[in-house]
């Protein structure tokens, strides 16, 4: 499928520099200071040139670059601009799929010529610039991988088109770092001296599968410019959001639980929630001064019960560790079922209730561990 890709390299850092131009030209990193994290979330090209890498422990980054400027992450700000990028892309092309932070894929006419494809990609760049104020790069090719590579290697504000039939020729000189594969696979590639996609493409497919397991076939196909990943345009839905400004900035979990209960009540009373259930919730906190916190919760079963939702939110808030007082809380339903209704039996016996609980537990175990049911019945035999 012919796709266009638009991307903003170092998305989080590009956003930070857009709102604070004085950061340009400096070695800057965004560091997650949450307990158990303490790693680099993103870094500027100047920091990368000195050896700082995304995912690196902050202690190592400061050892490499003692004068490294460290910024706290602002996930709410990044999410808002990421949504703005997707909305801008949909203004230019109707079918758009999110491709991660600062990246989106759009379907374009496969029968259009190179000029028409370049114009479609240029419309994406222009729409994103108008909406976010940042120059993105764009590319077009057959499948997501080719389109993303074309966008990644092109300069900001420019468009690169990979002609049909030239996919392997285009990816051959690229580094294996372009492959989105587990760390262990990249380590083995370095061990075997396979540093370019041309070297990977030279391997027989059997050898690639023997050395890299189930990732071997995908590795071999991408090196030949083949990407079978399906294109799934995002579904547009009316957002159901509620926001509450705290009377005073607080770190008290009790006050935050009270605020969460008020927000939950508002959401469930919204007209869009009539006869619908919630699959996912997104909790966002704006901290005093600067910075924010965000967490997405996926429920085991869709629900519209306020007590169940509050039980989950309370557990999350009680274990919350933020870097400053909370001054604003936002709760959003990002996953809603279609209209649905439940009719319970007039004779809801205890046996039926227990059976329903057992079925729900088995479904949860299967979803968690995969395969067949993890529970079996043991009977005594002679």
Structure, explained:
- The protein has 382 residues and is an alpha+beta fold.
- Helices cover 40% and strands 21% of the residues.
- The strands form 3 sheets. Strands 5-6-1-7-8 form a 5-stranded mixed sheet, sandwiched between helices. Strands 9-12-10-11 form a 4-stranded antiparallel sheet, with helices on both faces.
- Strand 10 (278-287) and strand 11 (292-303) form a beta hairpin.
- Helix 4 (75-92) runs antiparallel to helix 5 (114-132), helix 10 packs across helix 11 and helix 12 (253-268) packs antiparallel against helix 13 (306-318).
- It starts with a strand and ends in a 13-residue tail after the last helix.
Q: In what order do the strands lie side by side in the largest sheet?
A: 5-6-1-7-8
Taking Cα atoms only, what radius of gyration do you get, to the nearest Å? 25 Å
User: Overall pLDDT, averaged?
Assistant: 85
Structural class: alpha+beta
Helical residues, percent = 40-55%
Strand content: 15-25%
Major sheet, described briefly? 5 strands, mixed
Q: Which regions have little confidence, pLDDT < 50, spanning 5+ residues?
A: none
Compressed to H and E, one letter per element, the order equals EHEEHHEHEEHEHEHHHHHEHEEHEH
Strand count:
12
- How widely separated are the two ends? 62 Å
Shape: globular
Number of helices: 14
What keyword list fits this structure?
382 residues, 21% strand
Helix/strand layout:
Blueprint (H helix, E strand, L loop, with lengths): L1 E6 L3 H9 L8 E5 L6 E5 L1 H5 L8 H7 L4 E3 L3 H18 L3 E3 L4 E5 L6 H19 L4 E6 L1 H10 L5 E3 L5 H5 L11 H9 L5 H5 L3 H8 L1 H10 L16 E11 L2 H16 L9 E10 L4 E12 L2 H13 L7 E11 L13 H20 L13
Parallel strand pairs: 2-4, 7-8
Antiparallel strand pairs: 1-6, 1-7, 2-3, 5-6, 9-12, 10-11, 10-12
């Amino acid at each position: 499928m012919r796709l266009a890709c638009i991307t903003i390299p170092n998305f989080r850092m590009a956003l930070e520099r857009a709102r604070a131009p004085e950061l340009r030209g400096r070695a800057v990193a965004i560091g997650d200071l949450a307990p158990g994290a303490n790693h680099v979330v993103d870094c500027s090209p100047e920091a990368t040139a000195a050896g700082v890498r995304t995912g690196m422990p902050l202690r190592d980054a400061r050892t490499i670059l003692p004068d490294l400027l460290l910024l706290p992450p602002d996930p709410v700000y990044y999410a808002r601009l990421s949504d703005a990028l997707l909305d801008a892309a949909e203004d230019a092309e109707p079918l758009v799929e999110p491709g991660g932070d600062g990246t989106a894929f759009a379907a374009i006419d496969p029968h259009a010529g190179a000029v028409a494809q370049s114009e479609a990609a240029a419309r994406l760049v222009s729409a994103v610039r108008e909406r976010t104020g940042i120059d993105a790069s764009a590319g077009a090719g057959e499948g997501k991988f080719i389109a993303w590579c074309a966008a990644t290697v092109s300069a900001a504000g420019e468009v690169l088109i990979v002609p049909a039939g030239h996919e392997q020729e285009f990816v051959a000189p690229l580094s294996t770092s372009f492959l989105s594969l587990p760390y262990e696979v990249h380590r083995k590639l370095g061990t075997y001296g396979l540093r370019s996609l041309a070297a990977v493409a030279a391997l027989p497919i059997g050898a690639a599968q023997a050395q890299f397991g189930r990732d071997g076939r995908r590795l071999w196909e991408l090196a030949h410019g083949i990407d079978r990943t399906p294109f799934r345009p995002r579904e547009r839905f009316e957002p159901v959001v509620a926001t509450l400004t705290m009377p005073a900035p607080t770190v008290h979990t009790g006050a935050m639980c009270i605020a969460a209960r008020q927000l939950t009540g508002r959401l469930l009373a919204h007209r869009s929630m009539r006869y619908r259930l919630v699959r996912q919730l997104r909790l966002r906190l704006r901290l005093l001064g600067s910075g924010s916190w965000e967490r997405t919760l996926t429920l085991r079963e869709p629900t519209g019960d306020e007590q169940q939702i509050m039980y989950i939110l309370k557990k999350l808030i009680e274990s919350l560790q933020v870097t400053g007082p909370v001054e604003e809380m936002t709760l959003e339903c990002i996953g809603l079922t279609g209209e649905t209704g439940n009719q319970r039996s007039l004779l809801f016996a205890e046996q039926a209730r227990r059976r329903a609980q057992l079925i729900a537990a088995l479904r949860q175990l299967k979803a968690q561990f995969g395969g067949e049911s993890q529970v079996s019945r043991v009977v005594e035999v002679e």
